Amino acid sequence: MKKKKLLVSVLALALGIVLLAFNCYGSYGSKSLDETSGSQHDRGVINAGLFYVNNKGTGHYLKYNSSVTGESGLLSNLGTYIKWYFYETSNGYTIHPNNASGDMYLAVTTDGTGVEVISSNDNREYPERCYWDVIQSSFGYLLRGRYYNQYNILTYKYLKDTGSGLSMVSSLPQGEYDEQIKFEWRIVSTSDYGASTSYTYRELGSQFSVNPLIVAISSSATPTINKYPSTALWANPDDFTYSTASTGYISISHASIIGLAKGTVTVTATHKVTGRSKTFTVSVQEKAILVGIYRGTNHDHSTVLDSIKPTIEDCGFCVTKYTSSLTKNNVLNLLDANSNSIFVIRTDGDYDSVYGNYTYVTLNSIASENLYSSDLTSTYDLSNMRLILYIACHAGKTSGISSNLPSVSVARGAETALGFEDSIYCAPANDWTEDLFNMLENGTSLSAACSYLAQIPYYSNNGLANYHIYGNSSITIN
Fold it and tell me: What CATH number is given to the structural domain containing 241?
């Protein structure tokens, strides 16, 4: 009888162990990255299952092949080395390499500096350093491990991929994007992500491409990635690194390309995750500023900008257009900005024969804000400007005037500036502006174009033949 009771007790104990194991480890779920809750919990963030774990900063997969490392590459090459089981327990997650036999656990090293894979003892017991918190964060998840330090105090650290190895770090960086993303891990189910069409999310294919990029000097732009397939995961511009053999034309920061000097360079975009790469061209262009102040139906100075914008772009300039009111300081800063090479303002203008004999152009619809030639003081350096056109009445007036806008602009360093002596009429002046840039696009010099247009009665009868060019009258822009 005693033996029978003992047998029943043993069976009950065994059943309890089985139930406990099932409760701790759960079934293999398939909760995808996009289905996570968004709450900052260390448990319940992802369901138990088999996952790929990929670092946002480096593009490396968490890999186990006798040691734990980070590595980029194709899924077909990395195989089972990058698959990890996540089990949720009452004390956090345990993480297990898919390719290891027996009870193997991802653990913080005993000195707390790195990670390793260890096995449980004969009683399936494992130390505290095998538990992990999975914390949802900006770009994925933080993996926080724990261990007992030299003073036997339980200490928490975060898993970081430095690019050259894995380490455990006590605190997260603040405000340092490059460093922050090395702590961010993207976790996706192996049943959701793969190379074939049967998966919801796909590995980036070799047919992806990058559009040619145009960027202005002193400005930045982000490349456009044409993902292939369209469901490719982790294929945004900042999932690539960018490099070029040409120096002096661009600088690169994250996924931003900054123009330094005019020219065209070839850039290589390399996918951090797969290692696949494509080349594309970056054209660094000078910038043209177009200003058109609308002052009513009979003073529409802004519509013409739409006509000349593509023409100037065809000459190799990035164009920025302003059609709303500007302040004097706005305009002075645009003229003085090193990135700007052409400045065209189409507006009303006049001269002040009472307060200093200066010419000016109007900067808003009610003429309450004006730019005077006297505003271009010696504190402004316009040496960045190749061409300034003041297409407004009297902006270039010389008779009885102390100074005019184009002459002072050249005195402040501009290569060439133009203005008109007399009143000019709105519609003819708009047409003259469009014809002028059509000729400049064809390689005609400024002086030759103005001289040709001055012979046309429609322009000469409306004040457009009496112009003044200061500086280099032979300038061309194409």
Answer: 2.60.40.1080
CB 182 within 8 A of CB 302: no
Q: With CA atoms as reference, report the closest residue to 138 among 28, 238, 71.
A: 238
3-state secondary structure of 452: helix
- What CA–CA distance (Å, rounded) separates 77 from 391? 64
Kind and range of the H or E run holding 296: none
pTM of the model: 0.79
Q: Please check whether residues 276 and 318 belong to one and the same domain.
A: no
Does residue 3 sit within a domain?
Answer: no
Last residue of a domain, one of 219, 251, 284: 284
Q: Do β-strands 166-169 and 154-161 pair in parallel, antiparallel, or remain unpaired?
A: antiparallel
**Are 469 and 449 in contact, with CB atoms under 8 Å apart?**
no
Residue 431 falls inside a structural domain: yes
- Structurally, how many domains does the chain consist of? 3
Q: What is the CA radius of gyration of the chain?
A: 34
172 and 219, same domain (yes or no): no
**Closest Cα to residue 348, out of 334, 366, 335?**
366
CB neighbours of 290 closer than 8 A, spacing ≥ 6?
A: 305, 308, 309, 312, 319, 320, 321, 322, 344, 346
Distance CA 432, CA 391 (A): 10
The structure tokens listed for 248 are 């002096």
171 and 239 share a domain?
Answer: no
d(Cα 184, Cα 57) in Å, to the nearest integer? 7
Domain that holds residue 101: 25-193
CA distance 371 to 322: 15
3-state secondary structure of 446: helix
Asked if residue 411 and residue 306 are part of one domain, the reply reads: yes
Residues 386, 360: Cα–Cα separation, whole Å: 21
Residue 134, domain CATH: 2.80.10.50
Query: Is the bond into 173 cis (omega within 30 degrees of 0)?
Result: no
Q: Residue 392 corresponds to which tokens in the numbers above?
A: 């407004």
In 104-260, which residue ranges form alpha helices assigned H by DSSP? 177-180
The closest alpha carbon to 267, from 339, 209, 217, belongs to: 209
92 in Cβ contact with 107 (< 8 Å): no
The reply to whether 405 and 447 lie within a common domain is: yes
Judged by phi (left if over 0) then psi (alpha if -120 to 50, else beta), residue 326 lies in: beta
Tell me the per-residue pLDDT of 312-366, one tens digit each, with 9 for 90 and over.
Answer: 999 999 999 999 889 999 999 999 998 899 999 999 999 986 656 899 999 988 8
- Claim to verify: residue 309 and residue 421 sit in the same structural domain: yes
Q: Which of 284, 304, 330 is the last residue of a domain?
A: 284
Do 311 and 427 fall within a single domain? yes
Instruction: Grade residue 100 by pLDDT with cuts at 50, 70 and 90.
Output: confident
Q: Which helix (H) or strand (E) holds 14?
A: helix 2-25
Residue 407 sits in a domain whose CATH number is: 3.40.50.1460
